[in-house]
Every structure is written in C-alpha cells, then in structure tokens.
Amino acid sequence: MDLRELAVKVSAVVSEAGTLAYQDQMKPHDFIEDARKDRSRKRQYTTVDDRLVRFCHERINAIHPYECWEEAGSDRKPGERYWCIGRIDGAINYMRNMPEWTVTVSLFEVDEDGTNVPILGVVHAPVQGLTYMAAKGYGAIRIRSTALGEKREKIMPSTTATLRESVVSFGMSYFPDESKRALNTAAALAGKPADIKRVGPVSMDLCKVADGTYDAYFEPSLHSWDVPGVSAGAVILREAQGRLERWDGSDIVWGASNDVVASNGPIMDELRPYLR
Hints:
- With 276 residues, this protein is α+β, with helices and mostly antiparallel strands.
- It contains eight helices and 14 strands.
- The strands form three sheets. It has a seven-stranded mixed sheet with strand order 3-4-5-6-7-8-9, sandwiched between helices. Strands 11-10-12-14-13 form a five-stranded mixed sheet.
- InterPro entries: Inositol_monophosphatase-like (IPR000760).
C-alpha cells in the first residue's frame, strides 16, 4: 500500500472518529465537568479524548499496525515508521461548543540521519465539513462537504508578498508568559497586515496557510503535546509547497518546544523581524 492509498484509508477512520466526537459535542453538557487536567502535561483535555484515541488506534492499526508515537522508544532505526494519533485539537473550542476543533493523525518515518520526519497527515474538522490530507511526494488536497456535494481540490498557499496585503493568524499558550510573547508579537504587527486572526487550533491554522486562507501563522512555545496537530498540519503545508520553521529559521524539532511560524514563503522576509 503506497502512502497516498494509506492516507485515504486513514482519512476515512478520522472522519468517522470526528463524527462520533461531534455527536458527543452536540449532547447537553457542562463544559466544566467535561474539562480535565493532564497533570503531567499541564493541559486541558476533554472526556471524549480517551474514546477518540482508542477508536483511532484500533481502526488504524487494522489498516497498518505501526507502533504509536507514545509507545515508540528513543532507539529508533532508519526506515521505521510510527503513528501519531492526537486528542482533540482545540479542546477549549470543543468544550465551549465552538466549531473550530479537529481530529488529527500523522505518520512519522525515521530518515537515514535518525531524524523523525512526518510523511503523512490528516486533519479533519467535522463541524466545518473540512478534511485536509497529504502524503509525502503526492501533494495536498482539501475535501469540502457542501450543499452541492463533496468537493475535492488540490491546495496551494497564497502568493501575497507583503504584510500590508496579508492576513496573519497567531496562536496562544495556556501559560501566561508564553501568551504574552504571542500578544506582544501581534501588537508589534498591529496595523501592518490587512487583518490578524486568532481562532485556532494549530492544525487548522497550518492548513489555512496551506490553502491560502491565511498568508502566515505564528505561535511561540508549542510543546510536545502539540506534536500530533502540528505534525499532521506540517505534512499538508509542506506538500502544498508552504513553509514551516522555527522563528529563527531552523527546522522543527519534534518532541521539543518550538516557536513555530508557517508561511506562503514570499512574506517571510518582512515577517521575520517581528518574531523575537
């Protein structure tokens, strides 16, 4: 099974998982009772997360039983692959009955240098009727569910070359110091782009740079628990010919804390001086 076929099969599982999570979101609930704290990671997650991850694990392992991100040890050999199945990306949005949340899955491969490289990504936003998928070497596509039926299309970033004409999105952390960095950067940019958005989650922000909705996206201090959403979005962005890097221009280090910036490419020279 090649990567493109594998991406299609995984996308069907992710879509089904998203439908189940959407059904749970539509049930009457108290968002305070639905929120829990992962003490080891210091992040909120929902009561649906465990069921969602277990469902995806079982179905995806039936397609191809690679190890999962959490199970794979540090001694990984070149050529090995493993799944990275995320909890709901945009947990607060989900708990508050907002539509901007996603279900994500990526596949990593260890290259000849022992570096972990995401090579397949699926990002599904059930409420918005959007699915993005990509596999290394095959490009990226967006699937939209509309009143006129399902529409599949190849995606690519915008060609906007200046901040003045751009739409830029940013993300914020749960932690005060990290949030201040994001807000200070947005404040420094104020009045330069045509608009600055703050919606999230990170996986969807990356996809919206990939399809040209946004010209750039930045967020400081993305953590190890953000890997599922970022890695899935990274494959889609890169296969669409967008750019993803750290604020200093270096490569993303998976599993570490990263100050992330995604862009269409041409806008980066003007944007980079604000990323400090």
